[in-house]
Amino acid sequence: MMWLDVGIIFLLMIAVGFCYRLSDRLQSLKGFTTVLAPSIERLTQVLNGANQAIGYLKQATETSQKGIETYIPNAQAISEDVVLLIEHADRISYRLDDLIVKAGEIEKNLRQTVLVSMRQTEKQAELNPEIQINKATDPRDLFVQRVISRYPKDAGVTHTPVQEQTQSQ
Question: In the chain, what percentage of residues exceed pLDDT 90?
Answer without folding.
Answer: 34
